[in-house]
Amino acid sequence: MPSFVMPTSRQQGDGDGRPSPAAVSAVGLRKSYGAKTVLDGIDLYIPAGSVFALLGPNGAGKTTAVKILSTLIAADGGQAQVAGHDLTTDPQAVRAAIGVTGQFSAVDGLITGEENMLLMADLHHLSKREGRRVAAELLERFDLVEAARKPASTYSGGMKRRLDIAMTLVGNPRIIFLDEPTTGLDPRSRHNMWQIIRELVTGGVTVFLTTQYLEEADELADRIAVLNDGRIAAQGTAEELKRLIPGGHVRLRFADPAAYRSAARALRDVTRDDEALALQIPSDGSQRELRAVLDRLDSAGIEADELTVHTPDLDDVFFALTGGAGVPDQPKENVR
Asked: What's the whole-model pTM score?
């Protein structure tokens, strides 16, 4: 399989040649469990105030990367800094700057939502008055006021995820690690979670997101990395990744067989579907290429009955970079 490695963010800047400040950076990060290598020297650079999404097949090492960067486990090799602090020499400073929400909620279902918030405030050594103020503000922000005094076990999945993130924000973290935060949520709850993530970033928070949903990464992330076999197979913006993959095309369908045959003669590099009376022309989806196809048809006095443009999406990128192994489940609704 060919390698598709994009330039990393450290080559990007703020327009005057200076690199963007890093919320998270890692060089040569390694982790093995026995004979199994989970991370095989990955490099990451995540600008502050952005959303970064890490994609990969199940078992690719996404959660391991989050655990290392959030100081829950130690790497076997490499170097990393989070919020400007070295993971190895200053883990306490890293922990003070981050929040972590895992695949499985940290919410205690035996106590109320408000009590969960106050417990978290105690863990952050806030005074009782300050803890109650912060808890009240966050419960309101996440639309949990009405349910605040009900046992968290009675909450829906979406409510528990909102409470989980609210608890994470008690410590006012600059960087939040969200490990598959919308897994198992219904479409409405997933969309609500996306809006919360956008608002966090608008407020200056950096979000490191792992997800099983390719459209979620496409919708939210400023930059995306695809992890496969312990290595970063590619990283870049969603559009940069899509341009790596061939397969874009324009499809023309005709109702008149004579027009179909004339179009096939007039156009170059076409793939014919005689049964459907359809032609497929390679294209990058640009306006320039589309206009060139239409101009050739106009010159020949031919009009197509139907025209569709297909450009590679993140599904195509994922298949190309991982060989289709462990393809994540996708949400069924059209999120656009």
From this structure: 0.76
